[in-house]
Amino acid sequence: MVLPNFNGRDLLKSYLPFTFEALENSGCTYEFLLVDDCSQDDSVEFVSQNYPQIRILKNEENRGFSFSCNRGIKESVNELVFLLNSDIKLSPEYFRGLFPYFSNPETFGVMGKILNRDGSKVEIGAKIPRRIGKYLKTDFQYLPFAESSTAPTLFLSGANALIDRKKLIELGGFDELFSPFYSEDLDLGIRAWRMGWKCYFHDQSHCYHLGSATMKTQIQKDWVKTVYFRNRMLFHAIHLETEDLRWWKAQTLLLDVLPKLLIGKTWIWKSFKALNALESGISQSRNKLRHQLQKKPGSRSLRQVLTEFDRLMVSQQIIWKS
């Protein structure tokens, strides 16, 4: 278990009891690592006093979600790593049905269904890719009609993902270029699919999402939007085939950046500029991934992943969710 934390004292107090209940009910041997990202509240003191069985790792400076998760992954010792956000409440039997997925050597990881706070709405189900020109949309999701142990998902939410640690280490964990947050789990899932592995969704496991704290100022809201759209563009810059990059950038400027600028959403230009500032890091991420794929039999391009995913979906009975 790896749980990144930043000023999450109240969340930890509310939800850690449910986490431990689910872990105990799983019947497995586990370790619990909490990676604190320079919290300014008394998170560390609270956990130390009330949960001495949790091993606490303290970052020397605030580094964001990807760095914190990667640190926990490297420090972990068990065959599987469960990544959990502090605002997630696990159901008592959350892990029931998840472990058998890993009898398949192609399994990268599996996640359960994420419901809203009162369980009245599905927030995150299995993800389906859809392409609009050169742009990959990932906000489509579905739920299986019937119980299924093989429902594929494009990626695993970093909020509640059970993952093969050996494969995580082979990939190098999350790409920290996506720091401080957003789209790092999409990037990780796509890299796993490109390596020939599979990500699954288990409909019978569920948890509850408290929801992000409301931003207090418009400046904060615009900053979050800037990071979000920068990282959506960053994902494409890393994974698109070389011959598609020029057309994707033109499409992004004409159909996304300029229309938003015309209606006063100036933060989108900041996203685009921030993407260009990461040119060196993007090149490093592309080269690293290329070298990993070259050494892996059965690796594939993004196009091949999307084709394979469509083929897998043919055999799935689905309920579409917007």
From TrEMBL:
- For this UniProt record, give its keywords in alphabetical order, as a comma-separated list: Glycosyltransferase, Transferase
Span of the secretion signal? none
| The organism's place on the tree of life at top rank | Bacteria
Question: What name has this protein been given in UniProt?
Answer: Glycosyltransferase 2-like domain-containing protein
Q: Could you tell me which residue ranges the Glycosyltransferase 2-like domain spans?
A: 2-171
Name of one Pfam family that matches? Glycos_transf_2
The family annotation for this protein states: Belongs to the glycosyltransferase 2 family.
